[in-house]
Write a sequence for this structure.
């Protein structure tokens, strides 16, 4: 990329509230805007895989921060018995947002992820309705699953066959995922269109011949819909591990779709820092009242500032009634 366009990208990032350290422009790693064709593929095929989605600096910082949440693979494999919780089930390595480090939390509100969700959902009025981290270690448990549609715990009804009102579900790979590393296996929609949407699981093995392994280097993103059949798979070699961040978006107002109530997660380490560091756009994804919302007045501005020391409430204060 030419220096001029790099500077433009930097300006655009600063305009959307992202901190860009002075003097780093020359070393900037480029971010990836997900092409429209990939988003179209999610509707046509049920999923898309885009390598190089996270820029290198964001990825490296997030990877370092993983070890505040999970044992490093070297430590785990040196003594798996010291970490018995990972042997208790397939989902034992799931951790819900927020995380102790901003370097992980900011991945969930990565500007190009928001941009992709807005284009996928065809509106800027969107919510981030679930964020997880998922760490898996070979041998801790058998991670093989049957093919299933994820909607069962993302909506209380079913997706529409005409693809209106979709949910955008993603896996951001934070470690390299090869065939050996328990990749997610997805089945293109065309192979399963005959299965009514009310059916959420298939027989084990029924679509093994059609499944596509979601492999890629760390920083790759899988975007899929909640009606596509897919499954978690087991590691194929010892000593391997896999770390991903699943993040899901919906249009605000589709009240039958949900998964997490954010207020219930505000006492965890990292929440306050995340809210302080986010831009108004990013906070909005969690339901924070927008600038201009009637919620804001002198009292709420003052008390929210007390709850979130260091937060810049100027964007909310400018239009607040007293
Ligand atoms: O971990 C994976 O690759 C997929 C898991 C999955 O599809 C699920 O638990 O719903
Ligand atoms: Fe799933």
């Amino acid at each position: 990329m030419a220096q001029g366009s790099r500077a433009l990208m930097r300006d655009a990032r600063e305009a959307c509230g992202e901190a860009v350290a002075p003097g780093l422009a020359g070393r900037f790693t480029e971010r990836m805007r997900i092409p429209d064709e990939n988003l179209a593929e999610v509707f046509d095929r049920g999923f898309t895989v885009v390598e190089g989605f996270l820029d290198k600096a964001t990825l490296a910082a997030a990877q370092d921060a993983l070890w505040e949440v999970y044992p490093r693979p070297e430590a785990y494999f040196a003594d798996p018995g010291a970490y018995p919780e990972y042997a208790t089930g397939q989902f034992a390595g799931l951790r819900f947002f927020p995380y102790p480090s901003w370097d992980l939390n900011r991945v969930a509100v990565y500007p190009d992820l928001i941009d992709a969700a807005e284009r996928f959902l065809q509106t800027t009025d969107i919510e981030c309705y679930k964020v997880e981290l998922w760490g898996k270690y070979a041998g801790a448990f058998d991670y093989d699953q049957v093919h299933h549609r994820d909607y069962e715990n993302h909506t209380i009804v079913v997706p529409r066959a005409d693809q209106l009102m979709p949910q955008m579900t993603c896996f951001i790979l934070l470690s390299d995922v090869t065939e050996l590393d328990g990749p997610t296996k997805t089945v293109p929609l065309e192979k399963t269109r005959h299965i009514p949407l009310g059916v959420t699981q298939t027989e084990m093995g029924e679509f093994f011949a059609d499944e596509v392994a979601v492999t890629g280097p760390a920083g790759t993103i899988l975007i899929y819909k909640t009606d596509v059949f897919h499954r978690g798979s087991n590691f194929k070699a010892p000593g391997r591990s896999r770390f991903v961040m699943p993040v899901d978006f919906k249009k605000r107002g589709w009240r039958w779709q949900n998964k997490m109530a954010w207020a219930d997660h505000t006492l965890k380490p990292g929440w306050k820092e995340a809210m302080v560091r986010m831009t108004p756009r990013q906070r909005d994804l969690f339901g924070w009242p927008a600038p201009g919302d009637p919620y804001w007045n002198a009292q709420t501005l003052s008390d929210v500032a007390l709850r979130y020391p260091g937060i810049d409430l100027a964007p909310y204060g400018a239009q607040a009634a007293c």
